[in-house]
Amino acid sequence: MRDPGELVIDIADVTKLYRMGSEVVHALRGVTMKIHRNAYLAVMGPSGSGKSTLMNMLGGLDTPTAGYYDFAGEDVAEMSDAELADIRNREIGCVFQSFNLRPRSNAIHNVELPLIYAGVRANVRKERAMEALENVGLGDRMHHRPNELSGGQRQRVAIARALVNRPSIILADEPTGALDTKTGVEIMELFEDLYAKGNTIIMVTHEEDVARHARRIVRLRDGLIEADETNLDAPPRT
Amino acid sequence: MGDHCVGVIVVEGEQAAVVVDHGEDRDWNFHRHRRDDSGEWSAVEDQGRIEYAGGEQSAGFKFPIVNFSDPRERFGNRPDVRYRQALRFKDLMGDAARVSMITSRGGRRVYHEQEHTNPNVRFVGTDENYLTSYSYEVAAGRPISSDDVDFARSVCLIGEDIRKKLFSSKEAVGGTVRIDGNSLTVIGGLESKGSSFGQSQDNIIGAPISRWFNVYGRSGRSISINVQASSAEEMEAVHEQTIGTMCLVRGLLPEDGNNFNTTTNDSVMKTFDQALNTVVIGAFVISAIALLVAGVGVMNIMLVSVTERTREIGSRKSLGARKKTILSQFLLEAVTLSLFGGIAGILFGIVGGNLAGQLLNAAVVFPVGWATADLVVCSGIGTTFGLYPAWEASSLDPIEALRYE
Known about the structure:
The complex is a heterodimer of chains A (238) and B (405). Chain A is α/β, with parallel strands linked by helices. Chain A has helices at 51-58, 81-90, 107-118, 122-135, 151-163, 181-196, 208-211; strands spanning 7-20, 23-36, 40-44, 66-71, 74-75, 92-95, 169-173, 200-204, 216-221, 224-230.
């Protein structure tokens, strides 16, 4: 087992309550975990297990009701909306099941968006967007719009967009959920490649085949961690 | 309330005018009465409504009397300016100014042989100074002379519209026209003056005022007197003199106050400006309402847009867009939308203004101030009415927004 890198995410005893009408839903009932730099982690669990809530919280889209969330040494629970937005912008790259690309903008403009929010100058922006697209193997599709790209290519654009601000972690929510098996495998190969280059990847999935690529698998059930184990079946590190 | 006599205004020889109150509003009519051989009075004919509510007089150039705002009631019981008073006034003014007397009836029909005009001709009774005062030029023949007035000659000047209608190919001067049963010899034709406020100024026929009175009678007619100073500098003095002379003619004492009205070009312009102001205020109110409606429309469109793009907003937020960023994005969209409307409005205004200018034969001016105001107001509308939808967008919970279908 490799040495764990620098600590990026440190959550302790995190709970999350939702009020749905008069009912109170305990989405998370006390989750504790640490994630180090250059980890490759899969979060698994049936629906209602709290994995989406955990994902949102890790992604800075949500704050815990109680407990402690420390992102790269900073307490997220204390952050304002604007500070959370900055964390999402600079530290976390989100990849969604449904890509969430802007349909009327081409690949470059889609990838540029986080850089615009980060306040990067226009010429630097374009250069970095092109670089990110080349990294995901879309060097020849830069000026295509999402509807001119295949599903796999769209997800690559989304991954390039997640990478473009050089975030601490990549957060992927069912990244292969909308893709066929073959394309899904290609995307997983891309993640493998990104992991090999030193990126930190956290992935939510309910497919064992997909989770098997991760080096560590966390299983949630009813808002609690059921298992947190090193994946011995993971492909050898290249 | 039935008809009842309010009062006999004047008895002139064998004729009298009786004011009859018909009991509805101020619907007072003049009836001419005539005394027959046995000494009994009997109504001769209906002389029509009171056309002039009192003595009116315009001192100055070119402009006819304009009265947009004064309530008629105020002058209802003022005495008419009578012909004899007008003559005396003209006499007393002497060389100080050019004085002309005007009285008129509209809706007349003019005949010549088998031809006749529509019943919309203004028949003006006037004198030798009329043409200069109202800046008409004689195109052919001669103007009305003071002799024509003194001897009540059966002569007339005809406007271009009438000449075209009745004497299309013939020589008009020397011809005979009939109006309300009277034959008049055409002594001259007026040069075309075009139209003013959409009303043709060439659809008139002018006769010596004395002849005009022979047609319609003197009683119940109030004469308008036009006084023209020889230069703009003298206007003020002539105006003073006009008021003084009129008081003298009427035999008014200083404490009586004036029972007549004078209007100058300046005051006409002032009245006109006031009327224009009213129009501007009216337009302002209407456009304010229209803007409010448009603003609500903008708000509605933006709210729909926010709902439709909920996922996009969620995805933008997950990529690091701050609340402020989303807010300004949607505000900018609302302002852009409104500005498009504003620019379309300016273009529409330019096209409409040019068309109207063509129709009214008026010079078209591009109002830079109003156009600027248009853009400013539209931006304001966009900001004001876009604020709520933009706020809604920026306040969306990113998780809910991402999950939105």
